[in-house]
Every structure is written in structure tokens, then in C-alpha cells.
Amino acid sequence: MDSKEPDWTKFRPFLDKEVRYSALAKAYPAEAEELFAAAQANAKWRYESYLRMAEMKY
Q1: Domain regions of the chain by residue span
Q2: Which backbone phi and psi does 52 adopt, to 5 degrees?
Q3: How many Cβ atoms sit within 10 Å of the Cβ of residue 41?
Q4: Angle formed by the axes of helices 19-27 and 29-55, nearest 10°
Q5: Which pTM was predicted?
Q6: Alpha-carbon span 17 to 52, nearest angstrom
Q7: pLDDT in tens for each of the 58 residues of the chain?
Q8: What is d(CA 25, CA 12) in angstroms, rounded to the nearest whole number?
Q9: Cα→Cα distances 44→6, 29, 38, 39, 41, Å
């Protein structure tokens, strides 16, 4: 991989700046927390899968 690992502490502040996520948090605060956690878990899973693919020998 030619990029460094993302700073996961900046993931939530990034989501908070996006209109679609801030609107979700205002409309459904309890559900939004659960969805934000799921979005971060999914992003970490995707990043780790890219790392695994990068280590594969073809």
C-alpha cells in the first residue's frame, strides 16, 4: 500500500462535517450513534481487507 493508515480518531469529526450525517444525527440521535459506529467498523474492515490483498502473492 502506498498510503499510511488512516487516523481513526478523525473519522467521527469527518462524518460530523458531512450534511447527510449531521442531518441524521439531528433527526435520529440514538440511531445515528449506532450507525456511526457501524460505519467506522466497516471502514476499518475495508482498510484491513485492502492490506490483506496487498500482501497476497500473485
Answers
A1: 28-58
A2: -60, -40
A3: 10
A4: 140
A5: 0.81
A6: 30
A7: 788 899 999 999 999 999 999 999 999 999 999 999 999 999 999 999 999 999 998 8
A8: 12
A9: 9, 23, 10, 9, 5
